[in-house]
Amino acid sequence: MGLLDNFEKGLERAVNGAFAKTFRSGLQPVEITSALKREIDTKAAVVSRDRVLVPNTFTVRMAPADHDNMAGLGPALIDELVDLVQKHAASQRFQFAGGISIALQADPGLSVGMVQVDSRNVKGQVAWTPVLEVNGKRHPILKGRTVIGRGSEADLTLDDSGASRRHAEVQWDGTRARVRDLGSTNGTQLNGSPVKDAILEPDSVITIGRSRITFRVLAQATPGATDSRGRTDPATERHDMGGFWGPGE
């Protein structure tokens, strides 16, 4: 299965997985992702033989009622949109000028069910933000190590009787991650196989008891990024539904 096939599967997960909320009418999350994908493909610019540049800052406009519905999905929606945009760009060998920024905006001029995407290139450094995803909720990883377990002393606490109080840890040095079992009773699995200590690749799945924990790395734009005219991009300085949240994001 190719990367593009995986991207389309990701669209299904965005609607049926993390966002299993059905709207009888109005805009669907999958339609936002499709609009972002079309915007990227349309705005792709060939800079050189080996470099195709695409926008990295997006404003997604929709009717106020649709915006209220999307805001109800919480920050995980922006995380998923950024993740899928990043994967689509990778599948097409596109490149960004900086971190990915997506903002949702209510537009009274649009009817319910309609979506409009505006985009531009914003230059800036990319901050790689590692997260652990449990039951659709993402937890930022601490620099150094993050302990996972059932006990209150763990950095990431699991409500899982199959987990030890200090079950495993994820180490992050700023560029790479490792997972290490801490002598747990029931052991730790990485992508379905028992593990004691191993490199943790993006989108790997750690299994502890009944809990499945997905490791992701989100490409986040750093504050103070500038657009092509040298202006500071305000979207990089907000982290709510109306602002920026990237890889994770």
TrEMBL record:
Q: What is this protein called?
A: DUF2662 domain-containing protein
The answer on whether this UniProt entry bears the keyword Phosphoprotein reads yes
- According to the entry, every stretch annotated as the FHA domain falls at 146-195
**InterPro entries in alphabetical order:** Cell_Proc_Reg/RNA_Proc (IPR050923), FHA_dom (IPR000253), FhaA_N (IPR022128), FhaA_N_sf (IPR042287), SMAD_FHA_dom_sf (IPR008984)
Write down the superkingdom of origin: Bacteria
Instruction: Tell me the segments the record calls region Disordered.
Output: 221-249
Say yes or no: keyword Phosphoprotein present: yes
Bias type Basic and acidic residues, positions: 228-241
For this UniProt record, give its keywords in alphabetical order, as a comma-separated list: Phosphoprotein
Which SUPFAM superfamilies is this protein grouped with? SMAD/FHA domain
SMART domains named among the record's database cross-references: FHA
This protein's species is Agromyces albus
